[in-house]
Amino acid sequence: MERVSEPLLRVRGLTLRFGGVTALDSVDLDVDRGELLAVIGPNGAGKTSIFNCLNGVYRPQEGTITLDGQPLTGRAPAAVAALGVARTFQNLGLFTHLTLVENLMLGRHHLMRTGFLTGMLWWGRAKREEIAHRAAVEEVVELLELEPYRHTPAGLLPYGVAKRAELGRALAMEPRLLLLDEPVAGMNLEETEDMARYLVEVRRELKPAMILVEHDMRLVMDLADRVLALDFGVMVATGTPEHIQSDPDVIAAYLGGAA
Ligand SMILES: Nc1ncnc2c1ncn2[C@@H]1O[C@H](COP(=O)(O)OP(=O)(O)OP(=O)(O)O)[C@@H](O)[C@H]1O
């Protein structure tokens, strides 16, 4: 179906090869403002490769990626982050010796305008900026109910809380597009339900566009507006969770063992 307005993220013909392996084969996807697209597929399907292309870690051989009309292809990871693409990592991207709040403050680094020298010359401005950044971090702490862990070193956080802190670190960047890499991997049922609740809150309060890569099919089907199913780097199906759940190819390839 033809879209009327330009999506926030537009990916066309994304192709990534490692030697003889085609990790992504001409993948197209769109994400609208505020939309949650889930990407599913068995191990090795190319889900992580999509994230690595989107955030500038991998350089695809072919294809285009634009965010709000601006090309992302060929940009370095820091430049992509500065344009508003944040990512959570499966194995957590937190600095273990820093406190939770310090980790979240680091997430805002690219938004800080006052450098060291200007900070010395314009002490008042640097101070005001710091206060504003702390206030933004506190909003995230409150939204994700992380208050009790504010001063805990990230390495000492219980696993479920550390995953939530990882989400907080990405949110502190005020992303326009949030890439969630298996946010409930390794969690028990209760932790998974908690994370689902926080993700619903994040959508309601902050409304970032999101791409969710996740093996937990219940979470995917509960949260996603649309689902893209991949197999061996090829798009197998795309549609609403209801459509995907009843697609025979998807049932055969993905849901058979996981439902
Ligand atoms: N750095 C790399 N070098 C060589 N091959 C790679 C590299 N990264 C990914 N691949 C290959 O690309 C294909 C897609 O891998 P990718 O990690 O994107 O899959 P995935 O869907 O994220 O899998 P999983 O669910 O296990 O995380 C696989 O065949 C993988 O072996």
Structure description:
By secondary structure, the chain is α/β, with parallel strands linked by helices. The chain folds into 2 domains: 155 residues, Rossmann fold; 82 residues, no CATH class. Helices cover 40% and strands 23% of the residues. Strands 6-7-8-3-9-10 form a 6-stranded mixed sheet, sandwiched between helices. Strands 2-1-4-5 form a 4-stranded antiparallel sheet, covered by helices on one side. Strand 9 and strand 10 form a beta hairpin. Helix 3 runs parallel beside helix 6. The protein is globular, with a radius of gyration of 19 Å. The model has no long low-confidence stretch (mean pLDDT 89). Adenosine-5'-triphosphate (ATP) binds next to strand 2 and helix 1. This is ABC transporter ATP-binding protein. Keywords: ATP-binding, Nucleotide-binding, Transport. One of its GO terms (cellular component) is plasma membrane.
- Helical content (DSSP H or I, runs of 4+): 40-55%
In terms of DSSP E residues, the strand content is 15-25%
Task: Give the names of the bound compounds.
Answer: adenosine-5'-triphosphate
Mean pLDDT: 89
Q: How big is the Rg?
A: 19 Å
Can you identify the CATH superfamily of the largest domain? P-loop containing nucleotide triphosphate hydrolases
For the largest beta-sheet, the strand count, sense and barrel status come to: 6 strands, mixed
Judged by helices, strands and strand pairing, the structural class is: alpha/beta
Distance between the first and last residues' Cα: 29 Å
Strand order within the widest beta sheet: 6-7-8-3-9-10
User: Count of helical segments?
Assistant: 10
Number of strands: 10
Return the CATH architecture of the largest domain.
Answer: 3-Layer(aba) Sandwich
- The CATH class designation of the largest domain is Alpha Beta
Number of domains: 2
Shape: globular
Pfam families: ABC_tran, BCA_ABC_TP_C
InterPro entries: AAA+_ATPase (IPR003593), ABC_AA/LPS_Transport (IPR051120), ABC_transporter-like_ATP-bd (IPR003439), BCA_ABC_TP_C (IPR032823), P-loop_NTPase (IPR027417)
Domain ABC transporter: 9-257
GO molecular function: ATP binding; ATP hydrolysis activity
